[in-house]
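Duplicate of #3305? Posting structure anyway:
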């Protein structure tokens, strides 16, 4: 007769703890909700379009030019330049005639000569139609009237107002009879030679500080939320067992040390599993977007995603990802272990869940300090203050 191998009590406790967390209806419901939120967030433009929105529809500006200086052509040229500047269009693509449509203005400018009354009818038909009236003015050079159906958006208002100001300046220069060569010099982009005296700095990586201060907080937010969830989960589970006869059975069969560390390890394994699921949900969301024909969800930011990648390449950060990513993952796991040990110790010292909830407040504060310092670390520029706080546990 074969001797059946008895299961290891420590592994058995870990397995039971994981089953209590994973094999529940609430775990399934919560993850379905998370998947829906992440997938919908990555495809939000498709959802809005399904309810009547259109991200690809351009704004049409009908220009009624009553001036003697052909202000319409000047405005059209200035609008294209202004829109590219504000939207952060890729200048290299502008030189490629095949990609001309990719860097076109987000606005369609048309000259209109049927009068203001007829033009207003076009505006009433669609909120994407604007009417711009230019008239000569001795006092202000040109008098401008902008007619819209509703309020202008922030970006549209900024773009059109800046373009009108540039147009006014251009018309003023033309009326001043300045030679064409001088006009080209005036409107040419200023060339700035950047020089940094610090030997460990270079002009190419100067923009990475702004990039990292924007991207990094978004990247560490899920990690921060999982840490808080881990603390709450371990505290609730330990105190829940104290209110049942299960604790007496467990303590009579295994040592308190094994029971304690089984909770810590099970909690960390569950959090790592949940983190992997979040990454999977994001991947499925990207896949759905590609399937629906939405392309890169970051492509609508005017090429900013490509700019971020280029800036990281220049700064040498992409080359360092070989050891940055593993080191970051190790530090995350160590942080999970530290907070789970702290939560387990505090939970074992309390008699009920209400007492543990009161102890959660200082833990939350310490965790928030670490989270905000991580966001502001780039602002402090590697100061001694950040370096000291960087070695303090839980921060």
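Output from current build:
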């Amino acid at each position: 007769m074969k001797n059946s191998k008895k299961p290891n009590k420590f592994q058995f406790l870990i397995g039971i703890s994981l089953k209590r967390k994973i094999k529940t209806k609430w775990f399934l419901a919560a993850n379905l909700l998370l998947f829906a939120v992440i997938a919908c967030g990555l495809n939000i433009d498709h959802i809005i379009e399904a309810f009547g929105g259109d991200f690809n529809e351009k704004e049409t500006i009908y220009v009624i030019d009553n001036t003697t200086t052909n202000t319409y052509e000047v405005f059209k040229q200035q609008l294209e330049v202004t829109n590219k500047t504000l939207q952060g269009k890729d200048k290299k693509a502008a030189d490629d005639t095949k990609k001309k449509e990719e860097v076109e203005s987000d606005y369609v400018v048309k000259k209109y000569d049927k009068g203001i009354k007829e033009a207003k009818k076009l505006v009433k038909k669609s909120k994407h139609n604007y009417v711009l009236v230019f008239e000569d003015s001795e006092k202000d050079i040109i008098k401008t009237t902008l007619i819209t159906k509703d309020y202008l958006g922030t970006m549209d208002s900024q773009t059109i107002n800046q373009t009108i100001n540039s147009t006014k300046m251009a018309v003023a220069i033309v009326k001043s009879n300045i030679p064409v060569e001088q006009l080209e010099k005036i409107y040419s982009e200023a060339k700035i030679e950047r020089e940094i005296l610090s030997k460990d700095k270079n002009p190419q990586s100067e923009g990475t500080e702004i990039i990292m201060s924007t991207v990094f907080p978004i990247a560490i937010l899920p990690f921060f939320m999982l840490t808080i969830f881990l603390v709450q989960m371990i505290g609730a589970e330990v105190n829940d067992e104290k209110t049942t006869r299960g604790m007496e059975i467990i303590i009579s069969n295994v040592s308190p040390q094994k029971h304690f560390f089984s909770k810590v390890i099970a909690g960390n394994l569950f959090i790592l599993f949940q983190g992997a699921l979040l990454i999977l949900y994001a991947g499925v969301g990207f896949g759905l977007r590609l399937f629906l024909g939405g392309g890169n969800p970051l492509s609508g930011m005017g090429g900013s995603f490509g700019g971020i990648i280029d800036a990281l390449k220049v700064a040498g950060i992409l080359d360092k990802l070989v050891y940055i990513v593993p080191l970051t993952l190790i530090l995350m796991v160590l942080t999970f272990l530290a907070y789970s040990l702290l939560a387990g110790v505090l939970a074992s010292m309390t008699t009920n869940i209400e007492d543990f909830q009161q102890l959660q407040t200082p833990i939350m504060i310490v965790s928030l300090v670490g989270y905000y310092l991580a966001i502001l670390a780039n602002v402090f520029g590697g100061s001694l203050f950040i370096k000291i706080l960087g070695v303090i546990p839980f921060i």
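Confirmed duplicate; merging threads. The beta strands are 59-66, 107-111, 129-137, 141-147. The first strand starts at residue 59 and ends at 66.
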